[in-house]
Design a protein that fits this description.
Keywords: Membrane, Transmembrane, Transmembrane helix. It comes from Phallusia mammillata. InterPro entries: EmrE-like, Mg_trans_NIPA. This is Magnesium transporter NIPA2-like. This protein is mainly alpha-helical. It has one domain. It is about 70% helix and about 0% strand. It is built from eleven helices and no strands. About 45% of the residues are buried.
């Protein structure tokens, strides 16, 4: 077991409440993808006079169904934000697989995106992996206040990691997206993956900041006086906006049951690495728990790959990313 005397004092954590909130969030966000897709499809099939000139890009903004999906996503993400503030990120992050399951099941029911037996096995594997993650996830956190948060966010390893991701995102947005975005699903999805991972990390940091904002320590300056607080606020606003734009572009062009699983897997990969660098949540874990987390995550990824790859009734790879979910 890792000795805790040589590390920072553990922060107060509520993993089981965070788990419950994460499940509720997954249901709301998973449903929101379907509602947004329905709104996009309605715009394509029945463009109105008002949006006939722009329905290929932002005409879905005039669809009530799309806005209902956005409301569901907003509420779900707020709940997920709260979950991240009270529970370790390494617990909450993998449970995003439930979003994939919800969206896959609802896609099969409402978008005619078929789910065969292997896809259903993928759902089961994702649930098993999520359970293993819950059993082995840390119950404590290392970052308990804004002062510690500043130290973490200014760590050179984390800054290098963030810089690489930001540069990669700019390259994708400026160079690749205009050239390949409409025929390669990974372009738009990767933008959403990277921005989503950074937004979650900044969101957890903002949650810790808000705790000190409303209950400030007696011997420190107000949180809002520090530049990092406003950097986190700006990062969350910009990150959410970028995710909305590129997620909807991906949903408009590609199969929902292909977009959401791929987004889940790679967002979690970026998130887990960032969480290790930033919050060091593995400091309180035994070796067997680390192994359990690794096995759980691999099981989830395997399930998600099955869910994404075998969507045709024959169980082969005949469904392509460019296939429309009409």
């Amino acid at each position: 077991m890792v000795e805790t005397e040589n590390v920072d004092s553990p922060a107060e954590s509520h993993p089981f409440i965070g788990l419950l909130l994460s499940v509720v969030s997954a249901i709301l966000v998973g449903s929101s993808f379907i509602l947004q897709k329905k709104g996009i499809l309605r715009t394509k099939l029945h463009p109105s006079k008002q949006d006939v000139s722009s329905h290929t890009e932002f005409g879905y903004l005039l669809q009530c169904t799309w806005w209902l999906g956005m409301l569901s996503m907003a509420v779900g993400e707020i709940i997920n934000f709260v979950a991240y503030t009270i529970a370790p990120a390494i617990l909450i992050t993998p449970l995003g697989a439930l979003r994939v399951i919800v969206s896959a099941l609802l896609s099969s029911m409402f978008l005619n995106e078929k789910l065969n037996k292997l896809g259903k096995i993928g759902v089961l594997l994702s649930l098993v992996g999520s359970t293993v993650i819950v059993i082995h996830a840390p119950r404590q956190e290392k970052v308990s206040n804004f002062t510690e948060l500043v130290d973490r966010f200014t760590n050179w390893a984390f800054l290098i990691y963030c810089s690489v991701l930001v540069l990669a995102t700019l390259y994708l947005i400026i160079y690749l997206a205009p050239r390949r975005g409409h025929r390669d699903m990974l372009v738009y999805v990767t933008i959403g993956n990277i921005v989503g991972a950074l937004t979650v990390l900044c969101g957890k940091g903002l949650g810790i900041s808000l705790k000190d904002l409303f209950s400030p320590p007696a011997d420190s300056l107000p949180v809002y006086m520090h530049p990092l607080f406003w950097v986190l606020v700006l990062a969350n606003v910009v990150g959410i906006a970028v995710q909305i734009v590129y997620l909807n572009r991906a949903l408009a062009l590609f199969n929902t049951s292909a977009v959401i699983p791929v987004m889940y897997v790679f967002t979690n990969l970026f998130l887990v690495v960032g969480s290790i660098l930033l919050f060091q949540e593995f400091a309180y874990l035994r070796m067997e728990d680390c192994a359990g987390l690794a096995c759980g995550f691999i099981t989830i990824v395997t399930g998600v790959v099955l869910l994404n790859s075998f969507k045709s009734p024959s169980g082969d790879f005949s469904s392509t990313p460019g296939e429309r979910g009409v």
